[in-house]
Amino acid sequence: MKKIKYRGKIILSLNKTTKDMYYIGDKYIEKRKAEHIKIIGYLINNDINTQEPPQAILLGGGSASGKSTLSKQWLDAYEKNSIPITYIDCDEIKLLIPEYENVKQYNEETAAVYVHDESSDIARELMEECIAGKKNFLYDGTMKNLKKYQHLIKHLKENGYNIVVTVVDVPLDEAKKRAYVRFLETGRSVPIQIIEESHREVPKTFYVIKDMVDEYTLYDTTGIIPKEVIEKTIDGNILIHNQGRLDEFYNKSK
Length: 254
Prior knowledge:
Structural class: alpha/beta
CATH class of the largest domain: Alpha Beta
């Protein structure tokens, strides 16, 4: 790791990510695989699941859309009903990778980039562990990669899962304001082009995968309380609660 000072501030220049360092050939080195097993063991809920079929909740939304509100609602509902569920979130996994804290003391954004690829791999490993054990899980992702989600949904169907998609949305200008406020509060910033890309691609993904899953709900999270825009219930009924807001959501992709 090279440390550079500029105007009194330490800036890191990292030539390799943690995946670059520990993924040799076509796999992680044994010592690193052991670290992954440790992280997965910490995150997975191994309580016996009596829910049949097992449920996979796929949570998505553009940057700064308020996914944490919905993830908390889902997790609280499962806990209230004493049903085990595993929460899979790359951002949470990043915090558990040893090198993250070391780099974070110099620059948090650099730390996130440094461990990003490896955290994604661990999330995928954790998900496969859940699927193999028929465990309920909530996967918290952006949902901007259509092919990734098409493949995932096909895989879940082959393994007998009930698939629920939950997407949150706010107007792009509101997302940018929230991202700026978060930067002022935490020092973490998301590039404008990343925010715009996620808000452009999520509607494209949702439009395709909504017909592939058992249930879905799109929420408007502009206000304090999330409001349903459109939903597909477990019995297959499609309910449009706000056509104007739905049109706004899809128009982002144009």
